[in-house]
Amino acid sequence: MQPHMTTQCLAFSLISGLACGFEEVLSRYRFMVPHLNLSGPTSFAPVINAAISIVESSWQYHVLVIIADGQVTRTNVPAGKLSPQEEATIDAIVTASHYPLSIVMVGIGDGPWDSMQHFDDCIPERAFDNFQFVNFTDIMKSQTEMSKKEAAFALAALMEIPLQYTATQKLYAPEQHGRDRIGAINILPPPRAVVELDNAANAPPAREITGKSTDDSVSTEQVCPICLTNPKDMAFQCGHLVHFLS
């Protein structure tokens, strides 16, 4: 994405639909990354709004997990002010607080994460506290057993979920208290190279037509192009090719 463009959501697939489990998501991510050119500026607003749109369609509780190696873009912004990307992300978080949706932000790498760690302080009043930031790298750097690190990460990521879920049970759909629905969000398709690879992988195998000898003068059975896609079990030919054979 070029610097002058805004962040948008990108579909993982146009064929397979929803991914099943973390391993499938990770596998798909690794498959797509070589075909992408990633760059800033960074905003989490589009993915939050996309999650809101999904929740809006069913009004069932969801947890949005954002895994990122950097915080929301903040460049040449005076102290006490917010960048356009920060404003958009905060607005999306506030909107999400009116839906049965929890947001867990997982920071991977050396950040910087100062903005994310203090993000809650910049967010105005919400229907409930729906945002949690977890510094994965700091947890994994601790000098302890891996099982304890994994348990600490799980606790940090999920510790607020029970209270958040309880809070969402008191929420009502937007139209019930005069707010507009966010509606469908425009999701960009995968890169053309990825779509072409998917189509090739999911294409049915080519139908092999084998000839059958009927006598010495005919070595290959002629196949009717009309009946090819809708084969029929007939004792005699379909009649479509009679004028070619006469």
TrEMBL record:
Q: Which InterPro entries match?
A: Copine_C, E3_ligase/Copine_domain, vWFA_dom_sf
**What biological-process terms (Gene Ontology) are attached?**
protein ubiquitination
* GO CC terms, sorted: nucleus
Domain named Copine C-terminal is located at 15-171
Q: Which residues form the signal peptide?
A: 1-21
Keywords for this entry? Answer: Signal
Look up the domain of life of the source: Eukaryota
Q: Which GO terms describe its molecular function?
A: ubiquitin-protein transferase activity
Name the chain's protein: E3 ubiquitin-protein ligase RGLG1
> What is the source species?
Carex littledalei
